[in-house]
Amino acid sequence: MRKIVGFFASVSFLIFADHAFAESPLLIYGSRGNGLRGIVFLGCVNCNKFDEDALANQFGEFGSQFSPKSIYNRFGDFGSQFSNVSACNPIATNPPVIVDQEGNFQGYLTLNRFVNGTVIDPRILGACL
Fold first, then answer.
1. Which residues form the signal peptide (predicted)?
2. Which residue in 46, 79, 51 sits closest to 65, CA to CA?
3. pLDDT digits (tens, 9 = 90+) for 96-125
4. Would you say the pTM of this structure is higher than 0.70?
């Protein structure tokens, strides 16, 4: 039941985000450690699918299944089921975060349901499938 509620909360968040924040991009950031130098931009959730930063742009750096900076790359740091910084690792302790354009935290993009705070299921974005 908890998974179902979490799933619908994630769907609701993304539907709301798509409409309410259409002018305010929701951005994904990951971390490779090393403090601020290790922060990696991973794309824009609600940008136009033709935008080069959009997750929906499968030909862009962040929507490609082959890019090292993509949550869709099953062999990369941020899309692997084994990486500690991946959205797709159900036990990741340092998953990517979603922030608004001002840097305000919106939630963790992760399959780890035990992370403290708001959790957005990456499967909603078509990742980790």
1. 1-22
2. 79
3. 999 999 999 999 999 999 999 999 999 999
4. yes
